[in-house]
């Protein structure tokens, strides 16, 4: 039984701490198993007369996108996203991230099988916030962030349990956003590298963008219009975040701590004023308010993990003739390199 629990623990992306932490160990395993037990096959949901028309439509969309991911993007054809679970909460997990008050460097937590990553996930929001408070008290020089995550990947290792299910936390997304999420999470099953969050997340983000662009060519006009509106706001917000990260990096390169913190204050003020201007342009759209309200080094660093290497992956996709199979093979070659060499080779497109 002990080996079974450890195996389950190693399979979870939210993971079990490599150091002894029974409480975290328990919530990781039990939280995932509760989700697995809540999931039923999409066919069962579609055959159930009590399934609402709205949910029925979204499940049908998800199955279409799942097939598209396999046939058009070369993503894995397995049990993932063939079942659905209503979690009756607003997120699948809540991630805790931390960074120094004068650096965009995520604190690392290490997990069995998965290596070290720049976040720590909890199935219960209160537990995530309690952990963040404890870290804040123990290490007051760190800035902490807690944010909801609609889905996570078990890297294909739990397909014998039914795979990663569709969840109520994202099934209601507009079709284009649902496509991006499914493509992103399936990409983690193609390539995952220990101890390199930026490489993993940037690769998956590149796949979601490239796949999303290919999906748009087949989507309805209404779906493309909804996607364009949502994506315009996302790109504008990410551009503001990148500008702020650039300003913070300049600030944190200053030799004197007082100078660093003064320049940081100016950069953060620029972010807040820029965000206010965006909201005016968006006619008050408040979808990024929760993130902006707690914006700090930890959240900016976490976001950078999803953006930093995306242009290099997109360039690699072009180099490989816009062929997904060749692209994945090239990424697998990179994944076998040492971390520093991997990044250098990707950026230089020489490998």
Automatic annotation (TrEMBL):
Q: Which residues form the signal peptide?
A: 1-20
Q: Which keywords describe this protein according to UniProt?
A: Aminopeptidase, Hydrolase, Protease, Signal
GO MF terms listed in the record are: aminopeptidase activity
Name of one Pfam family that matches: Aminopep
What InterPro entries would the database entry show?
Answer: Aminopept
Say which enzyme class the record assigns. Answer: hydrolase
Q: Could you tell me the EC number(s) of this protein?
A: 3.4.11.-
Q: What is this protein called?
A: Aminopeptidase
> Which species?
Hydrogenophaga atypica
Lineage, highest ranks first: Bacteria, Pseudomonadati, Pseudomonadota, Betaproteobacteria, Burkholderiales
